[in-house]
Write a structure and sequence with these properties.
This is C6 domain-containing protein. 23% of the residues lie in helices and 32% in strands. The chain is α+β, with helices and mostly antiparallel strands. The chain has two domains: 2-49; 62-158. Strands 1, 2, 3, 4, 5, 6 and 7 form a seven-stranded mixed beta sheet that branches. It is globular and about 40 Å long. The termini are far apart.
């Protein structure tokens, strides 16, 4: 009986120690997490997993002809896309959206997440951004993260008139020399009076 009691006491002691160790371990893990160390490591691993190499060719981007924010915002008539190639040989899209009032430059993706390149709310907004070309599409780290139909929204509250560059031509003044006409004096012709001698008839 005594031996059985001792065995039971030993088991309880070991169980208490195990529970204590478990509590300490959980406390350490929680503190480790609260300290902000585990989360960055997880994010680092995730970001490493998400890294995608860029490629040299993607289909051209296009401007949306209808605004998803209508009637409050309309498609801007000043939306520009140009393409460059990085030193690594990656294709890059340089995007500019111009508008007045609330202006948004964004896109929709197949996974429903979408992306916002920029937005502003000034009298005149010039929103600029870049998208790298990845194997799954512009700025896409997965096939479902690709931009739907490669369409970008440049939605603005007001259109900004296109600025026309005025080229000023220097004014050229042509001076016409004054032509002086020399007065030609015609000499007066004097007609000599011819006197006819009176004929005398002899008596």
């Amino acid at each position: 009986m005594k031996q059985a009691y001792e065995n039971t006491g030993f088991q309880k002691k070991m169980l208490n120690r195990a529970l204590l160790c478990l509590v300490v371990a959980l406390t350490c893990i929680t503190a480790f997490d609260i300290g902000g160390t585990r989360q960055p490591i997880r994010e680092l691993l995730r970001s490493k997993h998400r890294q995608t190499e860029c490629v040299s060719t993607c289909s051209p981007l296009v401007a949306a002809t209808e605004s998803p924010y209508a009637p409050d915002l309309i498609p801007s008539d000043q939306f520009y896309i140009s393409y460059t190639t990085s030193e690594a040989g990656c294709m890059i899209a340089d995007i500019t959206c111009v508008g007045g009032g609330l202006s948004i430059l964004d896109y929709e993706t197949y996974d429903g997440v979408g992306g916002t390149i920029g937005y502003d709310n000034q009298d005149v907004n010039v929103i600029e951004g870049q998208l790298p070309c990845y194997k799954d599409g512009w700025g896409a780290t997965s096939d479902m993260g690709a931009i739907i139909d490669n369409t970008l929204n440049c939605a603005v509250q007001e259109q900004i008139p296109t600025t026309t560059t005025v080229t000023t031509t220097p004014s050229t003044t042509t001076t016409t020399p004054e032509v002086t006409t020399t007065e030609v004096t015609t000499p007066e012709i004097t007609t000599a009076e011819v006197t006819t001698p009176e004929a005398t008839t002899p008596e």
